[in-house]
C-alpha cells in the first residue's frame, strides 16, 4: 500500500540543542547531555544527573507570563519550527493540534508549593497555577500559533508523544481536518526526579541503554512536534515530505503499573500490527529507534519483543536508543523520537546509542554505538514508545513515494452499547442512568470498594477505583469481551491533590521518603492504566484533558477512533474524585461560570461503551443508541456550528447543569421545544458531569424514553455537541 | 520493643503500607516468604515501598543492593535486620 500520510514539518527542543538542526548535529556526533540538575536543588536526591534544556525560549508574544510553563515554552519552540518548515497557515487551512504530555506545569506548581511550604500564609501566587493543567500547553499554542480547528490534549505516560501522532493520523484518515500539528512536551521537575529515584530506576552515571552494566534511566526534558497531512493533498500544495508515517499500532499490556511483561508479547504483536498496517515486512525495515530506557527490565523485554516480531531479520536491523543522549523525556519521548526516526529515514543516517561501551550480549541486538553512521538507504524504520500501565505504541516511518494515492476516508458507523455512573447514589447501570435526572440527590456516597476485589485494587487510588467500577459495569452489562476493548478517560486536572501531597512530604522529610507506590498514580493516565489492568483491556488506552469537558472530549475521541477503525470498541468517560485544590484554586482559575467557583464537588465517574456498529451487530449486542453526530469547537458558543435539528417527535436535551448560554444555543439549534434533563441535581457538582450526561442520554434513548438526545458541553474557550439517536 | 513486638509492628506496616485490605496482620507467618506466588505475593514495587516505610517508621535503612533480598525474605529476617541495626 502506498503511504497515505506524510510528515511535512518537524521541530525539536531538546537537551542537545534549540531546534532540529542543532539537535541533529549533536545526535550524530554521539554527544551526551547529562549533567547535575541545575533547575532546582537536587542535592538530596540519590540520582541527580539529568539532561536539561538550557535557556528555554519563551515566545515573544507571551503576554501573561504566569500562564506559561517551561513545558509550554518548549512546545512552542518545536511546534513553531515544524509549522514553519511545512508552511502551515492556520485559518487558511483546517489545522488540528494534538498535544501529549504528563507533567504540564508541575515544575512551576512546585515553585509555588515550595513558597507555600516556607510561608503557609503566602496568598499572592495562586495565579501561578494558570500554567498547571495539561491543557494549558494546547491553549498557549492555540493563542500563539493558531487558531486551530480543534485541539486535543492526551496522556498515556511515556507513550503520550507517539499517541499524539496516532490521534493526528486518525483525524486525517477520517477527514476531520486538512493537516495536524502533533507532538508532545514535558519539562523536568522535582516530582518526576523524586519518583523515579523512589523506584530506584535512575542510573547515577547517566543512562546506558543496552549496556551490560545498565542501571536505569536518566531523566531528560524537551518537546518534539511534526506536521502530518494526507500525502495526496500535501503533494498537490507542493509540500516537501520528510518521511511517510506508514503505519502504527497501539495497545495495552494489562499487566502491571510499573513493570513490563517479561516476554514482550504485546510489543511484539504491536510491531507486527504496525508493519501490517504499513504493508511492510521485517525485510523492509532498516532501523529501529527503541524505547531503550536503560532499565534492566525494559531493554530485556524490548529485545525479546523485537526478536519475536522481526525473526531472523533482527540480526540485520540496527537498533539504537536516543535516551543515551537526551535522557528519558517522558511524555515527550514518543514525539521527539518519532521526529528523530523520520530524520533517520530522510537523511539516510543512523543515530547512535551513546555510552554503549559494552553491549549486553544477552540482548542479541545489532547496535549503532558511539556515533551516527551514513547508510545507503533507510527504506523504513520503527519508533517504539512504552508507558506506565503498559500503554505501548509502535510507529512505522518509510521513505515517501513520488506517486501517492488519495485517502479513501473510512468512517464506520458508531453506536453506544453500555452506560454506567458511580457517584452519590452508588453504581447505576443502564436503567439507573436512564432515570438519573428524575432522581433526588442521594446521601449515599460512591462506594467503589463494594464492587472491586480489594486485593487486585490495592494499588489503585480513588480515581482509578471509580474508573474501574464504571468500566467493569459497562463491559459486564453489554457482555463485551475486555480483550480487544480500549479505554479513554478524561480528567480536568489529573491527580493534583496527590501530587501536591507527594511534594509536601518531599519538602518536609526529603526525597528519600517519596513513596514509590504512590508515584505511578500521579501520572495523568494512571486511572486509565489501572482500569485497563484491572479489567484486562488490551486495546488503545490513554487519558484526555479538556477542563470541565474532559468527559465529552474522551467520548468524541473514542468515537473518532472507532469510526476510523483504530479500535473495535472503547470505554469512554471521566473520573473525578473530590479535590480540595480544584475546589479552592483551579476551579476559580478555569471555570467558565463564576457560580461554580468554590462549589463543593462529589466523587463521580461515568462511562459509556462506544462501539463500531458492525462489531456490535456481529456479537449480538443490544445497541442503546446510534452516535448520529458529534462536533467540537474552540472559542465561545456564539461561534460554534449548530448541531442538526431533531428529526423525531420524542427528542430530548441532556445537560450537565442548567446554563443560560446553553439554553440559547439549544434554542438556536431548533431543540428549544424538547424536554430538558439536567444531571447535577441527582449526583452533585463535578467535572465528570459531562460524561454523566452522555451516559444518561444513551440510557434514555436505549430504554425508549427518548427517540434522540442532544448533549452540549462547554468549558472556557471550548465545547462539544453530540447527538445520540435510536438505532 | 522486644523481638515479638517488633515482628508484630512490621506485620502491621506491611498491611497498611501495601494496602492489604482485610488481611489480619497476625495471620502473616514470621517465616512465611513475602515475595513470589508461594508467599504473600508481593513484588518489586512492594519491596521499594516497604523499604521506604521501614526507614521512615522504624528509622532503619534497608540496603539497596543484593543484601535487600536476604532482608526481605520474611518478617523475621526484616525484624532481625532492624534489631541488628538498632543495637549496632
Notes on the protein architecture:
The complex is a heterodimer of chains A (727) and B (88). Chain A folds into 2 domains: 5-398, 3-Layer(aba) Sandwich (Peroxisomal Thiolase, Chain A, domain 1); 414-725, Thiolase/Chalcone synthase (Peroxisomal Thiolase, Chain A, domain 1, 3-Layer(aba) Sandwich). Chain A is α/β, with parallel strands linked by helices and 727 residues long. Chain A has 21 helices and 27 strands. Chain A has a 23-stranded mixed sheet that branches. In chain A, strands 3-4 form a two-stranded antiparallel ribbon. Chain A has a two-stranded antiparallel sheet with strand order 12-14. The model of chain A has no long low-confidence stretch (mean pLDDT 94). In chain A, helix 5 (160-174) packs across helix 16 (550-563). In chain A, helix 9 (296-310) links the parallel strand 10 (287-289) and strand 11 (318-320). Chain B has helices at 3-17, 44-58, 67-71, 75-87. Chain B has one domain (3-87): ACP-like (Non-ribosomal Peptide Synthetase Peptidyl Carrier Protein, Chain A), CATH 1.10.1200. By secondary structure, chain B is mostly helical. The two termini of chain B are 16 Å apart. The A-B interface holds A 198-200, 256-259, 449, 454-455, 458-459, 509, 512-517 and B 17-22, 43-46, 48-49, 52, 55-56, 64.
Amino acid at each position: 500500500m502506498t503511504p497515505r500520510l506524510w510528515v511535512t514539518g518537524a521541530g525539536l527542543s531538546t537537551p542537545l540543542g534549540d531546534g532540529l538542526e542543532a539537535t541533529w548535529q549533536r545526535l550524530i556526533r554521539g554527544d551526551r547531555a547529562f549533567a547535575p540538575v541545575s533547575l532546582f536543588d537536587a542535592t538530596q536526591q540519590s540520582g541527580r544527573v539529568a539532561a536539561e534544556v538550557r535557556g528555554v525560549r519563551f515566545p515573544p508574544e507571551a503576554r501573561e507570563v504566569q500562564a506559561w510553563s517551561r513545558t509550554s515554552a518548549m512546545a512552542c519552540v518545536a511546534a513553531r519550527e515544524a509549522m514553519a518548515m511545512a508552511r502551515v497557515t492556520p485559518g487558511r487551512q483546517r489545522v488540528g493540534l494534538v498535544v501529549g504530555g504528563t507533567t504540564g506545569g508541575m515544575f512551576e506548581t512546585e515553585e509555588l508549593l515550595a513558597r507555600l511550604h516556607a510561608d503557609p500564609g503566602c496568598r499572592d501566587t495562586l495565579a501561578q497555577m494558570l500554567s498547571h493543567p495539561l491543557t494549558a500547553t494546547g491553549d498557549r499554542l492555540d493563542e500563539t500559533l493558531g487558531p486551530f480547528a480543534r485541539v486535543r490534549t492526551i496522556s498515556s505516560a511515556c507513550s503520550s508523544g507517539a499517541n499524539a501522532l496516532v490521534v493526528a493520523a486518525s483525524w486525517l484518515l477520517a477527514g476531520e481536518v486538512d493537516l495536524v500539528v502533533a507532538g508532545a512536551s514535558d519539562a523536568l521537575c522535582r516530582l518526576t526526579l523524586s519518583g523515579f529515584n523512589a523506584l530506584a530506576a535512575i542510573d547515577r552515571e547517566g543512562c546506558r541503554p543496552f549496556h551490560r552494566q545498565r542501571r536505569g534511566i536518566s531523566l531528560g526534558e524537551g518537546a518534539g512536534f511534526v506536521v502530518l497531512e494526507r500525502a495526496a493533498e500535501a503533494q498537490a500544495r507542493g509540500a516537501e515530505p520528510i518521511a511517510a508515517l506508514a503505519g502504527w499500532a497501539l495497545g495495552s499490556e494489562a499487566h502491571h503499573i510499573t513493570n513490563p511483561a517479561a516476554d514482550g508479547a504485546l510489543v511484539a504483536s504491536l510491531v507486527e500490527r504496525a508493519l501490517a498496517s504499513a504493508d511492510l515486512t521485517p525485510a523492509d525495515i532498516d532501523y529501529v529507534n527503541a524505547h531503550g530506557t536503560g532499565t534492566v527490565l525494559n531493554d530485556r523485554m524490548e529485545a525479546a519483543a523485537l526478536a519475536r516480531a522481526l525473526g531472523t531479520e533482527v540480526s540485520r536491523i540496527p537498533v539504537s536508543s536516543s535516551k543515551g543522549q537526551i535522557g528519558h523525556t517522558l511524555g515527550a519521548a514518543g514525539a521527539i523520537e518519532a521526529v528523530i526516526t523520520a530524520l533517520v529515514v530522510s537523511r539516510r543516517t543512523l543515530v547512535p546509542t551513546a555510552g554503549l561501551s559494552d553491549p549486553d550480549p544477552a540482548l542479541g541486538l545489532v547496535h549503532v554505538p558511539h556515533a551516527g553512521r551514513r547508510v545507503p538507504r533507510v527504506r523504513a524504520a520503527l519508533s517504539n514508545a512504552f508507558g506506565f500501565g503498559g500503554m505501548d505504541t509502535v510507529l512505522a516511518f518509510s521513505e515517501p513515494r513520488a506517486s501517492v494515492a488519495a485517502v479513501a476516508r473510512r468512517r464506520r458507523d458508531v453506536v453506544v452499547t453500555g452506560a454506567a455512573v458511580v457517584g452519590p447514589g452508588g453504581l447505576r447501570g443502564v436503567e439507573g442512568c436512564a432515570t438519573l435526572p428524575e432522581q433526588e440527590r442521594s446521601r449515599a456516597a460512591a462506594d467503589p470498594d463494594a464492587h472491586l476485589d480489594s486485593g487486585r485494587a490495592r494499588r489503585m487510588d480513588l480515581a482509578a477505583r471509580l474508573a474501574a467500577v464504571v468500566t467493569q459495569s459497562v463491559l459486564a452489562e453489554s457482555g463485551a469481551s475486555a480483550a480487544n476493548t480500549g479505554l479513554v478517560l478524561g480528567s480536568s486536572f489529573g491527580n493534583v491533590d496527590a501530587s501536591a501531597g507527594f511534594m509536601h512530604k518531599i519538602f518536609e522529610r526529603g526525597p528519600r521518603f517519596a513513596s514509590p507506590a504512590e508515584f505511578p498514580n500521579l501520572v495523568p493516565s494512571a486511572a486509565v492504566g489501572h482500569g485497563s489492568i484491572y479489567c484486562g483491556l488490551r486495546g488503545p488506552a490513554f487519558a484526555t484533558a479538556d477542563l470541565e469537558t474532559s468527559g465529552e472530549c474522551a467520548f468524541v475521541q473514542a468515537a473518532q477512533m472507532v469510526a476510523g477503525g483504530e479500535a473495535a470498541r472503547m470505554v469512554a468517560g471521566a473520573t473525578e474524585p473530590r479535590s480540595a485544590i480544584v475546589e479552592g484554586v483551579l476551579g476559580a482559575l478555569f471555570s467558565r461560570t463564576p457560580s461554580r467557583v468554590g462549589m463543593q464537588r462529589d466523587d463521580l465517574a461515568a462511562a459509556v461503551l462506544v462501539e463500531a456498529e458492525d462489531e456490535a451487530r456481529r456479537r449480538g449486542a443490544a445497541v442503546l443508541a446510534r452516535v448520529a453526530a458529534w462536533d467540537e469547537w474552540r472559542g465561545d458558543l456564539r461561534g460554534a456550528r449548530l448541531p442538526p435539528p431533531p428529526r423525531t417527535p420524542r427528542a430530548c436535551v441532556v445537560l450537565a447543569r442548567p446554563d443560560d448560554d446553553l439554553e440559547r444555543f439549544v434554542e438556536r439549534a431548533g431543540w428549544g421545544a424538547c424536554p430538558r434533563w439536567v444531571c447535577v441535581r441527582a449526583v452533585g457538582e463535578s467535572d465528570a458531569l459531562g460524561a454523566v450526561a452522555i451516559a444518561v442520554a444513551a440510557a434514555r434513548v436505549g430504554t425508549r424514553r427518548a427517540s434522540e438526545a442532544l448533549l452540549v458541553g462547554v468549558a472556557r474557550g471550548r465545547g462539544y455537541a453530540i447527538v445520540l439517536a435510536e438505532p | 520493643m522486644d523481638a515479638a513486638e517488633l515482628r508484630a509492628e512490621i506485620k502491621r506496616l506491611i498491611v497498611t503500607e501495601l494496602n492489604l485490605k482485610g488481611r489480619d496482620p497476625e495471620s502473616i507467618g514470621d517465616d512465611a516468604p513475602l515475595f513470589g506466588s508461594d508467599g504473600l505475593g508481593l513484588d518489586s514495587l512492594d519491596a521499594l515501598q516497604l523499604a521506604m516505610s521501614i526507614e521512615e517508621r522504624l528509622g532503619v535503612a534497608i540496603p539497596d543492593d543484593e543484601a535487600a533480598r536476604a532482608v526481605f525474605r520474611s518478617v523475621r529476617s526484616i525484624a532481625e535486620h532492624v534489631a541488628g541495626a538498632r543495637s549496632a
